[in-house]
Design goal:
about 425 residues, alpha+beta, UDP-n-acetylglucosamine1-carboxyvinyl-transferase, Chain, 14 helices, about 30% helix, binds uridine-diphosphate-N-acetylglucosamine, cytoplasm
């Protein structure tokens, strides 16, 4: 399996320009199934999750091309209603295809996605939402069969603001008859981007970004062209890379409200962040300050997808920080790997841990446990003058486009060793 060898100690600084958000493009790609026409999407990141989703769209009969950040999907002739098991089992988030599939077809069959490294990740809320809209669901030997007995607007009240369940509910409701009202919807910016994409193709969705979303069903949708929003998590990760190595970073394209939950914590650690000309400028702290408590929560709280990277930052702080992961039950797997690199981390409970800053980290061979945990290890390695080897980087490649090239351009000494799987 491929790995990175990082010889740290260099400042990570300069200008950063990166493509759109993984968590926005994946539901948008699912939404392309609905218009029975062409979708042209710009600013699409070249990451393995996008290529995986392309395979899923092609497997149902869509014609897809991707080049230089532009994705074109023609879903006119899509006609396969069963999603092959290998896809859903490999990429858990492919479950967001379910709402769009049943919005378009009378029947769809998809495998149960199961858990993943960061938690069990059930889909009960997705299924309850679809049932509310009139979809009959049969769960059978690991498969979910959805029958469109009817598709009618209704009231959906989520007991937890799940991002994926909110997206699936919107996707299914777009072509329902009547009005769907979603209460306690997730408020993540990526849901707003999905709304904007759908409305450009003729849907009537309003309220995304708040906890109440209303969808008025429409009969027909049309061709659409759209630009994906910047990736707040990838940007936040590079901001920490600079802050940790005493570099200045200029990011050319950000949405301030998307960045604030992250910027707020980085300021507490001593960073200076200024928004200007549509981008931002980060100046590193002279001394990294510890943050008393970092508790992840749904947007606009501190994102769970930045927890591991912020933890690396705190391993080199001047005091004690407590991290409380409230979204996923198993999202501390990077702790053991960071400890191998010399971090001082103690578990208080399964989802609360305490980090006491150390003066420096040391090199070792480590393994990416998951996507963001892997990014956290890259950040740690950037501070270590000796060579650190990070394996299982396929996790990182799910969500970071060309991380080795971007970091090299910003001053890092990072080598990717490709090992082709036999
Ligand atoms: C592709 C994508 O956008 N992924 C993001 C999305 O994942 P995803 O959409 O899977 O995350 P959810 O918001 O659904 O999950 C949050 C919590 O709700 C639980 N839950 C969820 C659905 C359900 O039916 N039942 C249930 O119990 C989950 O197990 C988890 O504990 O939001 C997460 C939370 O911001 C992010 O970390 C992921 O990067
Ligand atoms: C957990 C993440 O993604 P996914 O939901 O695709 O696994 C993530 O982006 O950090």
């Amino acid at each position: 399996m491929s790995k990175y060898i990082i010889k740290g100690g260099n400042k990570i600084e300069g200008k950063l320009s990166i493509r759109g958000a993984k968590n926005a493009i994946l539901p948008i790609m699912a939404a392309t199934i609905l218009n029975e026409s062409v979708s042209i999407i710009h600013n699409v990141p070249d990451i393995s999750d996008v290529h995986f989703m392309i395979k899923i769209l092609e497997s149902i009969g869509c014609k897809v091309s991707y080049s230089d950040g532009t994705l074109i999907v023609d879903s006119s002739f899509a006609d396969q209603v069963e999603i092959e098991e290998c896809y859903v089992r490999k990429m858990r988030s492919s479950i967001i295809i379910m709402g769009a599939m049943i919005g378009r077809f009378d029947y769809t069959k998809i495998s149960y996605p199961g858990g993943c490294a960061i938690g069990s990740r059930p889909i009960d809320l997705h299924l309850k939402a679809l049932k509310k809209l009139g979809i009959r669901i049969e769960e059978d030997e690991g498969f979910i069969k959805c029958y469109k007995d009817s598709l009618e607007g209704n009231i959906i009240n989520f007991e937890f603001p799940s991002v994926g369940a909110t997206e699936n509910a919107i996707l299914a409701a777009v072509k329902a008859t009547g009005i769907t009202k979603i209460y306690n919807a997730a408020r993540e910016p990526e849901i707003e981007d999905l709304q904007n994409f759908l409305n450009k193709m003729g849907a009537k969705v309003k309220g995304a970004g708040t906890n109440y979303i209303e969808i008025e069903g429409v009969k027909k949708l049309r061709r659409v062209e759209h630009d994906v929003i910047p990736d707040r998590i990838a940007i936040g990760t590079y901001m920490i890379a600079s802050a940790l190595t005493n570099g200045k970073l200029e990011v050319d394209n950000v949405v301030i409200s998307h960045m604030e939950p992250i910027s707020d914590k980085l300021r507490s650690a001593g960073c200076e962040i200024e928004y200007k000309n549509g981008g931002l400028l980060l100046k590193p702290p002279s001394k990294i300050k510890s943050i008393d408590l970092v508790r992840t929560s749904p947007h606009p709280g501190f994102p769970t997808d930045m927890q591991a990277q912020l933890m690396t930052f705190m391993t080199l702080s001047d005091g004690i920080s407590v991290f409380h992961e409230t979204i996923f039950e198993n999202r501390f797997m990077h702790c053991a790997e960071l400890t191998r690199l010399g971090a001082n981390i103690k578990y208080i409970t399964e989802n609360i841990c305490m980090i006491k800053g150390v003066e420096k980290l040391r090199s070792a061979k480590v393994k990416s446990p998951d996507l963001r945990g892997g990014a956290a290890l890259v950040l740690a390695a950037l501070t270590i003058p000796q060579e650190t080897e990070i394996s299982n980087i396929y996790h990182i490649e799910r969500g970071y486009e060309n991380i080795e090239d971007i970091l090299t351009r910003l001053g890092a000494n990072i080598l990717k060793i490709e090992e082709i799987e036999k």
